[in-house]
Amino acid sequence: MLPSETRQNFKKESNPIFREDLRSFFDMEELNGKKRWVIQDCLLRNPNDPVLLVSDSIKFIIEHLDGLHTFDQITGIVNSEFKGNISENKVRRLVNELDKMLFLENEKFLLKYNSLEKEIEKRGTYDHSWLDLYKKPELIEQAINSISLDQDSHHTILVPHAEHKISYSMAAQGIAMLRNQLEEDNPLIIIGPNHVTPKVAGVFLGNKNFRTPMGDVEVDKKTIEYLKNLNPSIFKINNIIHQREHSIALQIPFIRTLLPNQTKVIPIVISFGEGDNWLETIKEISYYIKDFFKEKKIRILISGDLFHYSPLWIENLGDREDKEMLLNSSQYIYNWDTTALEKLSKGDLQTFSKLGFLGRYCATAPIWLSWEILNLRRAGIISYSHIGDFIKDGNGVSCALSYFE
User: Fold this and answer.
1) DSSP state of 5
2) Residue 369's closest CA among 274, 315, 304, 317?
C-alpha cells in the first residue's frame, strides 16, 4: 500500500512492517559468486540508483516483517526454517539497517514520501533528467533521423521503452505513425506498466506536465480529474510514481518533437500486484474510459517491452531438460516471441498473454487495457529486436514495434 491509501497510524516498532511498495524479489543478481535477491526502492529513489542484494535467509526474514510478528517470533520462525541459530539481536540489527534505508513502513518513510510530493508540487512538472534520453538530446535526434516515411498511419501503436538506441528508434517511428491520427481537441492516451511499485495494484494517473529538453508536454488535467472523481477507488493520482516511471517518460521527447505542439497526454500506468482478478479490473477501467470518450476518437500509445531474460527467470527454469539450451541461445527467445506475436497478430490475446506472463512481458497489461478500450481485433508487427545479453547470467529484453486495429 502507498501512504496516500493506507494507515497513517503505524503499528508499534516491536512489529515492524516491510514496505509493500518496494520492488523486492523480482530479480536476482550475482554477488561474490552467489545468487542474491534484489531489493530496489523505485519510489523514493531513481530506478538507476544502487540496489540491495540479500540472501535467501534475509529474504525469509523480510517476508515476515508484516506487522503481525514480533522480533522473538520472527527469530523462532527463521531458525526453524533454516535449522540455524540466529539471535534476536541479529534480526533487530537487520531491521535497524532496513529502517535506515527507509525500507520500513513508518513515520520516517511517510515524511520522506510527503517531502517528495511537495517537491513535485512546487516544481509543477516531472523532471526525468536522470534518464539518458533527457541528458543527451543527440539520442533523440538520432532516433528521429532513423524514421521511415513510408509507414502507414494507425490509431494505436505499441512502442518499447528500453534505454537503448534500438528502442528509441522504434519509439520515434511509432509515434510518427500517430501524427495524422490526432485531432485538435483529442488528447493522446499513453498506457505503460508500473515498474515503480509493481506489487501495489492500481491505475495511477499523473497530473503534472512533462518537462523535456525541447519544451514541456502538457497533461490533460481536466480529463484526469474527471476520471479520478468518476471512481477514486480505481483511478488514483500519484505524481511520485510518474516522476520515477520510465515507460512513459521515454516516449515524451518524441511526442514533443513529432506531434503537434498542442497535443495533450493522459499518462496511465497500471499494475495488478499479485491478485488474480486483473482481467476484471481491466474491463472495469476500460468501461469508464470508453464512456468518457464515446463522442471522441481515442488514440493510444502503448509503452511495453517483451521478453525479460534475467537471472531470476533462469532460476525459475528449475531442472528442465532444455535448460542448457535456453541459457545459451537467443534463438529460443526469438522463437518464444515469434509465437507470442503471431498469436497477437491473429487476435488470440489469451495465448499471447499466457506467453507474456511466463516471459515477463511488461507490455501484457497495457496491451490488454488498450484492447478492451478500443475493441481491438488484431496486431500488425512492424519490427522486432533483442536488446542486451541473452546468454547465461545476462540481462536482456526483446521489443517490438506494432500497430493495432
Assistant:
1) G
2) 304
Indicate the burial class of 202 (C-beta count within 10 angstroms; 0-12, 13-18, 19 or more). buried
Pairwise CA distance, residues 240 & 259, whole Å = 26
Degrees, nearest 5: CA angle 237-238-244: 145
**All 3 cell numbers of residue 390?**
541473452
CA atoms within 13 A on the CB side of 304: 34
Class of the CATH domain delimited by 125-404: alpha beta
Report residue 304 CA to chain centroid gap: 8
- Give residue-wise pLDDT tens across range 254-283: 999 999 888 999 999 998 776 667 778 888
Query: Does an H or E element contain 396, and which?
Result: strand 396-404
Residue-wise pLDDT tens digits, 286-332: 888 888 887 778 899 999 999 887 666 666 655 656 656 666 667 77
Query: Is 71 in contact with 92 (CB distance < 8 Å)?
Result: yes
**Maximum pairwise Cα distance, the chain:** 68
Residue ranges, comma separated, of all CATH 3.40.830.10 domains in the chain are 125-404
Q: Give me the residue label for grid cell 540455524.
A: 84
In the chain, CATH 1.10.10 sits at 3-115
Give the Cα separation of 346 and 323 in Å (integer): 30
C-alpha cell at 279: 482481467
Spatial distance between the Cα atoms of 32 and 110, rounded to a whole number of angstroms: 35
Helix pair 221-230, 278-292: axis angle to 10 deg: 130
Angle at alpha carbon of residue 387, lines to 201 and 381, rounded to 5°: 75
CATH topology of domain 3-115: Arc Repressor Mutant, subunit A (1.10.10)
